[in-house]
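ARCHIVE CARD
CATEGORY: sequence design from structure
SOURCE FIELD: tokenized fold
FIELD CONTENT:
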């Protein structure tokens, strides 16, 4: 089983799915870094250029076996991806 080493949540104010993702992570007592794509130009650039995404939330889960990117709020996929965290 892989160990999660870093979780990054790309979000923006007023995004209900972003809030649901944040609540999900907090409810599972997971440590994560939140990056506001409205306030942080570098975060916005990374969202678009690195992850080829146009919307939030975007969750980047880094583990010792690689990187998983989850676009949107998908609790079942989050459960599977974060089971090692």
């Amino acid at each position: 089983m892989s160990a999660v080493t870093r979780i990054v949540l790309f979000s923006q104010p007023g995004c209900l799915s972003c809030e649901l993702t944040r609540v999900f992570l907090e409810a599972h007592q997971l440590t994560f870094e939140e990056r506001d794509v409205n306030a942080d130009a570098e975060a916005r650039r990374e969202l678009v250029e690195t992850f080829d995404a146009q919307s939030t939330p975007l969750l980047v889960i880094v583990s010792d076996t690689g990187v998983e990117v989850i676009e949107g709020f998908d609790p079942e996929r989050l459960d599977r991806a974060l089971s090692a965290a």
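CARD ANNOTATION: The CA atoms of residues 3 and 66 lie 10 Å apart. The first strand starts at residue 4 and ends at 11.
SHELF: design records, drawer C
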